[in-house]
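Worked example (supplementary).
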Amino acid sequence: MNGFQKILAEHALELTRARTSTLQVNVGFLCNLACRHCHVEAGPGRTEIMDRGTMEQVIAFAKRSGFKVIDITGGAPELVPDIGYLLEQAAGLADTVMLRTNLVALMEKGREELLGLCRDRRITLVASFPSTNEGQADAQRGRGVWQKSVAMLKELNKLGYGRTGTGLDLFLVANPAGAFLPVDQCAAEKKFKTDLARKWNIDFTGLYTFANMPLGRFRAWLEQSGNLEAYMARLKGGFNPATISGLMCRSLVSVSWDGILYDCDFNLAAGLPCGGSPVHVSEAGKPEPGVPIMTDTWCFACTAGSGFT
Amino acid sequence: MQTYYDPGDLAKFGEIGEEAPEVAKKFFDYYQAVFAEGELTEREKALIALAVAHAVQCPYCIDAYTTTCLEKGSNKAEMTEAIHVACAIRGGASLVHGVQMRNVCSKISL
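After joint prediction of all chains, the assembly is encoded as:
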């Protein structure tokens, strides 16, 4: 029994699936950035990306299973050659299709067509924007990234993204620039909205705040900087039993670039598949309610404070 | 003990109540109430606490309220500005006493 399971047992709790309504598709680890907090260790040198055949199998899985939300993530999904095909197909299969973007990849020359597709098919954009502070954002994502991100947010606003009444949703994702817990989502959204509007005339639909996962590149940094023990203690100390019922892993299934099913993107990063052994999307059915969710110590990052829902 | 200040001691703060539990309880209840959201947000109160921590030069408070400020959504630039406010008041408090010096000088000088 791992440390997380022990805490669950102490609170007489179990972590099992509810109704699965979100399909998350991780199209690979290729990225134009190499962010220091990245749990999948994405970067320019990674070659793992989803091919067309796997995309077709993912779409077939979505058709036979039925999902309310399809959430496309990476890496930088914009860099995957057939991403347009996946978005087109997904758009007709779910109420909401989300594309995660680091903003910088979306800004690169040649992506105008993809952006047009997103706008025309009402794809929701979910953009990484960890801080309104340039120094802190760049410390996490790389020098110059913050300036480009602000420029891209302005471009997206021009297209109608994030502006009221357009139906084009633009969500921002902020995660801490270090070994501390995320800001309360409501308070952070209020402050980001005020700051971005006041300083740069930027609008957005809403903000998600997420804790950094003690996995991948962030875990390596925690170890190197001597922060791992204190950070894990902080996550465990912040365990909130009330978060369990609303955890996103209860209603989400994640498919990796090579078609394997996971309970969440963090288990994907750690190589811990649904049920403990790999099942390919071509053979999979939708996970049934009541099925146990695979856990490990990194799950504390989703249950600290107000949790990861 | 290698130094007078040990970061691990911060977690022992509550132990101060062992010899005087009633007043400690009153203090910690008051402390909690002070930092709860009111007319000022928790974020704003944490920034004030950070500034005061620098004015009174308390390493425990600086450690605690640096983390709290970040977790309440302040960024490094805002935190730095808050410390400058403390610095300006602290420095200003010294400088303004120069008026007393000038008064004394005037009184005893030709």
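Two points are worth noting when inspecting this output. The helical segments of chain B are 21-35, 42-55, 59-71, 76-96, 98-108. Chain B has five helices and no strands.
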